[in-house]
Each structure stands twice: as C-alpha cells, then as structure tokens.
Design goal:
By secondary structure, the protein is an alpha/beta fold. It has two domains: 210 residues, no CATH class; 182 residues, 3-Layer(aba) Sandwich (Rossmann fold), CATH 3.40.50. The protein has 17 helices and twelve strands. It has a five-stranded parallel beta sheet with strand order 3-4-5-6-7. Helix 6 runs antiparallel to helix 7 and helix 10 packs antiparallel against helix 15. The longest helix is centred in the C-terminal third of the chain and has 21 residues. Bound molecules: 2-acetamido-2-deoxy-beta-D-glucopyranose (8 copies). One 2-acetamido-2-deoxy-beta-D-glucopyranose binds next to loops. One 2-acetamido-2-deoxy-beta-D-glucopyranose (NAG) binds next to helix 7. Keywords: Glycosyltransferase, Golgi apparatus, Membrane, Signal-anchor, Transferase, Transmembrane, Transmembrane helix. Its main location: Golgi. GO terms for molecular function: glycosyltransferase activity. Belongs to the glycosyltransferase 47 family.
Length: 527
C-alpha cells in the first residue's frame, strides 16, 4: 500500500520474520519442520483449483459440534404454508445466495461516516469528500482525454468497506430471514474505526470497538447456528492492522482478528494476512462504470493505446527504500531514460490521487512495475490492469497469493514475475529483460490484462440484465463458496474449525510460486 500512513506497520510485521525464518530454514535444510508447525503436523490443506478455498483433506473426529444439527446448517429453500417446495413457474435463483445483513448499532458504521471530520486524524487528508457518491468520492470533473466521462471518481483507497456495504444494500439476494441465508454479512467499518486510533492510542482504546462488536454478535440468534463460521466482515485496510499479536503497547493495530469470536469469522480486505480466514479482494480504483457498455468502450480504448514507454513506475522514492527493490527500480528507471517513466508521487508536482495523472502514464506504458511498498500490495496493481499495462511483480504476496478470487491462477498469463529473494543477488536489468520480450507474447499478456478489467472494478449500480461480474460479485461468490465448503465439512461430520483460522506460514513465501522450491514445499507439507 502506498499511503505513508501505514509506514509504521511493517517494521514489526510477522510476515517478514516468517519469511526470513523460512528462507533460513531452507538454507539449513535440516530443520525440523514437524516441530515448527506442530499444530498442523497431521493436517494437509490444499488449495482448491477454482476458488482457492482451503479444503481439508484429512477426515477428523467431530468435537464440539453435537449441537449443530444437519438441518440447522442448511438454509432451506422457500416453502409455502404447507411446507411444500415452491416449485412450478419459477425457480428461486437466489437459493444458495441469500445474504442476511446484520443491522449493527450505528456506532459500528454510520457514526464513523457521519463523523468523517474525525477520521482526518488517522489519514493525512480530509475524508469527508471521499464519502460522497456511496463511497466512490466526487466525480472527476475534468477527465481530459485520458478518462471517459461520468465513470471516474476521486476514490479513496481506504473506503472499500463503505463501498462494499453500499453495494450490498442493492444485492439481489438479500433476505431479512436469517434462517434461509447462506451467509451473514457484518457491516462493521473496521478500517475507519482503526484509522482513528492507530497512532498514539493505547491498546485498550484500539480494541474497544472490536470487543463491543463481537459481544453484540455473539448474543444474536444468528451466531449459534454456525458459531460465526457463516459470518463475514469487509475491511478497507490491510488485514495486518487487525492482527496485533500481543498486548505490548508498541505493537501495531488492534487484535480484532485474534478475538475468539472473530477467529470463527472470515474477513475480506484489500490485503490479506497469512491466516486462512483472511481473504484479499481488489482495492477500489477510481473507475466505477455504471453500464457494461462503458467497460467495453474503455477496454477497446486500452487495446488501441499508443504506448511510448517500455515501463513505468508510480511511487515514492523515499530514502528508507534504498535497501529495498524500490531503490534499484528507481535507479534503473532513471538510467533507462526515455524507455521508463517515473511518476514521483511524494515530492514531485504530480498528484497521484488524481487518476488522470496516473492513467496518463500507465496508458502510455507497456509494463508497470509493482514492487511491494509499506506492505505487500498496492492499489497501483489495479490501476495498471485498468490501463492495460502489464504488471511486473517482485513478490508473490503482491498479487498471486492475494486476489485468488479475482485474478487467474496462472499468473504467467497476465503478468511478469521477477522475484527478489535476495536483493544483493538480484542482478536483473529491467530494460534489457523487458525489451527481450517477444511482441506476440506482449500482445497476449496485454489482452489477458484487458480482459481482467471488469473483474477488478467496483461498478456503479447496474441494471439486472447486464452480464459482467464485477469485483463485488466475485467477492460475494468467493465467500459464499467458502462458507458452503464449511457446511459440507459439518455435514460430513468433520470439525469445521480445523484449518479455518490457521496461520499458513507458507502463503506468502516464494516457495509456492517458484518451481525450484516447489518440491521442498511439497515435501515439507507431506512430512
Ligand atoms: C444431511 O442433509 C443432507 C441434505 O439434506 C442429506 O443428504 C444428508 O444425508 C444428511 N445427513 C445426515 C447425517 O442426516
Ligand atoms: C466529456 O465532457 C466534456 C466536458 O465535461 C465535454 O467537453 C466532452 O465533449 C465530453 N466527451 C464526450 C465523449 O462526451
Ligand atoms: C428487511 O426489512 C427492512 C425493514 O423492515 C425493509 O426495509 C427491507 O426492505 C427488508 N428487506 C428485505 C430484503 O426484505
Ligand atoms: C488508555 O487510554 C485511555 C484514554 O486515552 C485512558 O482513559 C485509559 O486509562 C488508558 N488505559 C490504560 C490501561 O492505560
Ligand atoms: C514491548 O516491545 C518493545 C519493542 O519491541 C520491547 O522493547 C519491550 O521490552 C516489550 N515490552 C514487553 C512488556 O514485552
Ligand atoms: C467457534 O466455533 C467453535 C465451533 O467450531 C465453537 O465451539 C466455539 O464456541 C466458537 N467460538 C465462539 C467464541 O463462539
Ligand atoms: C538499461 O539500464 C541500465 C541500468 O540498469 C543502463 O545502464 C543502460 O544504459 C540502459 N540501457 C538503455 C538502452 O537505456
Ligand atoms: C499459463 O499461461 C501460459 C501463458 O499463457 C501458458 O503458456 C501456459 O500453458 C499456462 N499454464 C497452464 C498450466 O495453464
């Protein structure tokens, strides 16, 4: 994530420690894997091909589940007074897709929006204007020739939770009858709440809303049906902000996701953690088309763009990045002169919040570099896709291990991967490497990227007849599948808590995405 307000988080981030530890262990080769992950030693988890849903391949003894009856985990199809299935003229297309939205006390959502002035404390700008247009922000008044009219907004990257909630209010399969719901949505604005207290507040204050929320939820009748395993949250900040592992005041964030009730729920956010109950969904970009035709028009335009730069990078050349790949990237970009365009978002004259400026550069570039920043991910990934600019990734945690519901599993089909495992050994010359790419490969990659555009936008309200699935639709599908797989486990008599909220230490290491290490990965997991 690009915004400087997160810059504190990564000094203490567990992923880095885990990554270093893992690489260290591989090096030693003799490390005792079974001791390292003792709690998982008997468990084999695999990723489902289509959805990345964690499937437990080990059958296990049920425990704690005696109260869950087979019927209670099955949302029943609608019946008439006699209990007969409503069949005949129409089949209910919402069966299996009904979502019940908890009517939370306003302090968990609406109050945060209404007090948007206070949110300014946690961000470096006034958040109020960004809450316009159901969280899309103000419409861009002067799209120049870069954007298309009426579809682009000044969207703040942290407002996913507000956008998602507003889109959910128009979801076609809402129900007020929780007994037929396949999922329970908890519209807590966790990120906005957190942004009030991330800096200079003690852990008691930071955890206060989270504790209140889980208490409220666990007292509702909906809780007991599956003990929260059919509940999900959506957060507009990275999941690490809610994963404080101790009560040491110097640790970052809240412990929302380590509360016992919260462990039973799933959370969707702009960047997931390495725990299995966190899922990543795209950052909100500034493009919110209201008709499929606007998307088709935009895609056509991106196909026809004249791309004068071989590659570009939009980001902040900050001194603390000298020891990261960013420093090298910036140096190489400058050395490549007219082949590379550097968009300086921090000190330069360019305002990177205005999509006109970012899109102008990305639309003119063949490749867009996406190094990790303060955290693994950046909104820029999705800006690059929108512009038909082929993303170049340096770490599997930036996209491949994140957006499993939205981006293709075969990452070589839409991106270039230049992993940086050890900065001192990374000797790639970007200009030469990218220049060597054959023209037909570039055309195929770009076409794949352009095809992804509808999947990564949060569309404005659309009429039913339209056919494209947007980022919201895919997120809803993903979470419904996830919850359904938990129901299947319960039906089969398995304990759904197995694997549900486990930490997966390997999720964001290079091993999964590097064939030379894949064998070690497999061996370790089979021990
Ligand atoms: C649970 O319900 C499903 C679907 O109605 C049925 O197929 C299955 O046999 C039931 N299992 C038990 C243990 O009753
Ligand atoms: C877009 O809007 C501008 C003014 O806001 C107008 O001058 C221009 O003609 C519009 N373009 C199209 C294609 O409608
Ligand atoms: C649920 O109940 C509220 C308040 O009674 C009502 O406004 C809303 O339309 C209902 N929603 C559905 C999907 O029935
Ligand atoms: C935490 O901060 C709040 C207000 O900022 C204060 O009232 C409270 O006593 C503090 N708690 C602890 C344990 O320091
Ligand atoms: C809290 O963390 C800091 C910095 O990591 C450390 O110096 C300190 O000893 C820790 N305090 C406790 C009580 O563990
Ligand atoms: C979490 O779910 C398990 C069953 O999977 C249940 O035993 C436990 O009580 C739940 N925790 C809470 C806090 O509800
Ligand atoms: C390619 O980049 C290197 C630095 O990484 C630079 O020395 C070289 O001049 C560049 N070549 C061209 C053709 O721009
Ligand atoms: C992945 O995509 C590449 C490039 O399009 C293709 O050559 C390769 O066969 C694909 N791999 C799989 C497993 O589909």
């Amino acid at each position: 994530m690009e915004n400087p307000i997160t810059s504190k988080c990564c000094n203490h981030q567990p992923w880095f420690v885990l990554l270093v530890f893992f690489v260290f262990c591989i090096e030693l080769f003799s490390f005792d894997y079974s001791g390292f992950t003792a709690k998982k030693s008997a468990l084999v988890t695999v990723l489902d091909d289509n959805h990345g849903t964690v499937i437990n391949t080990q059958s296990s003894l049920p425990h704690d589940f005696t109260e869950i009856t087979n019927a209670s985990v099955y949302p029943l199809p609608k019946t008439d007074e006699k209990g007969d299935l409503k069949v005949g003229t129409e089949i209910d297309s919402c069966v299996g897709r009904y979502i019940f939205v908890h009517d939370l006390p306003s302090r968990f959502n609406e109050d945060l929006v209404n007090n948007c002035r206070l949110l300014t404390r946690g961000t470096d700008k006034n958040m109020c204007p960004y809450l316009d247009n159901l969280g899309f922000g103000p419409e861009i008044e002067n799209p120049e020739d870069v954007l298309i009219n009426n579809s682009w907004f000044l969207t703040n990257q942290f407002l996913l939770e507000v956008i998602f909630h507003n889109k959910m209010k128009r979801y076609e399969c809402l129900t007020n009858d929780s007994s037929i719901a396949s999922a329970i949505y908890v519209p807590f604005y966790a990120g906005l709440d957190m942004s009030l207290y991330l800096w200079g507040f003690n852990t008691t204050v930071r955890d206060s809303a989270s504790l209140g929320l889980v208490k409220w939820l666990s007292e509702k009748p909906e809780w007991k049906r599956m003990w929260g395993r059919d509940h999900f949250l959506v957060a507009g900040r990275i999941a690490w902000d809610f994963r404080r592992q101790s009560d040491n005041e110097t640790d970052w964030g809240s412990k929302l996701r380590f509360l016992p009730e919260s462990k039973n729920m799933s959370m969707l956010s702009i960047e997931s953690s390495s725990w299995n109950n966190d899922y990543a969904i795209p950052y909100p970009t500034c493009f919110h088309p209201s008709k499929d035709s606007e998307i088709f028009r935009w895609q056509d335009r991106m196909r026809r763009q004249n791309r004068q730069y071989l590659f570009s990078f939009a980001g902040a050349p900050r001194p603390e990045y000298q020891n990261s790949i960013r420093g090298k990237i910036i140096d190489q970009c400058l050395a490549s002169k007219s082949q590379c365009k550097l968009l300086d978002c921090n000190y330069g004259t360019t305002n990177c919040d205005n999509p006109v400026n970012v899109m102008k550069v990305f639309q003119s570039s063949i490749f867009c570099l996406q190094p990790p920043g303060d955290s693994y991910t950046r909104r820029s990934i999705f800006d690059s896709i929108l512009a038909g600019c082929i993303p170049v990734f340096f770490h599997p945690g930036t996209a491949y291990a994140q957006y499993i519901w939205h981006l293709p599993k075969n990452y070589t089909a839409y991106s270039v991967y230049l992993p940086v495992k050890d900065l001192s050994e990374w000797k790639i010359n970007l200009n030469e490497t990218l220049l060597r790419m054959p023209e037909d490969r570039i055309l195929r990659l770009r076409e794949e990227v352009i095809k992804l555009i509808p999947r990564v936008v949060y569309a404005s309200s659309r009429s039913r007849s339209e056919t494209l699935e947007d980022a919201f639709d895919l997120a809803v599908k993903g979470i419904l599948d996830r919850i359904e797989s938990v129901r299947v486990m319960i039906r089969e008599g398995k304990d759904p808590s197995i694997g549900f909220a486990d930490g997966d230490d390997y999720k964001y290491t290079f091993s999964t995405y590097d064939t030379s290490m894949l064998n070690h990965f497999k061996i370790f997991h089979m021990v």
